Amino acid sequence: MNDKYKTIESQTTGIYKEKGSKFLSFACPVYSENEIKLIIAQIKKEYFDARHHCYAYRLGISGEIFRVNDDGEPSGTAGRPIYGQMLSFDVTNILIVVVRYFGGTKLGTSGLINAYKTAAADALKNAKITEQTEQQIVSLRFCYSAINNIMKLVKDEKIEILEKITELDCCMKIKIDKSKMAMILEKLLKIESVSIQNSNNQSVITGETNV
User: pTM of this prediction?
Assistant: First the structure.
């Protein structure tokens, strides 16, 4: 199973200037369409005086979810060239917004395509591209008596803990590499009192309990 993908480590910016027009680019790592909407809204608010706010995004380990937006520029001259740079750099889980300040001189179709492509590429060149492993977040509930076994498994498998509450009834939210999911769930199943929910709060497995 291929569970590796490339993305950018943190937000970066770029710039391109042509015939008085200025193109500011913003590349952001993203993981959901709701997150994307918030970032676009924030950029539009901050750069409210710009003529256009064009963007493209790509989500999923193989980039299966994507969208391009020309925001008033001639069709195919903005969003598609931005998206093309994501393909060229082989990155996903990414949003790139290019903000244009019009300089008074029209650039023509080829000029616009080159401007948005170059601005997007500049933001990506300034980014640190890293290889990530696709992960799934799950929540555990278990009795305190099971905590030693849980923590041993977490340590042995190098599992990232996002949240932890240790009381009589314990809760823990963890990230698991998708390729290891079946194996780790099988080990958790053997620990007494454990119940597991996925990120949608749906029960995915329940261990034996004597409580």
Answer: 0.73
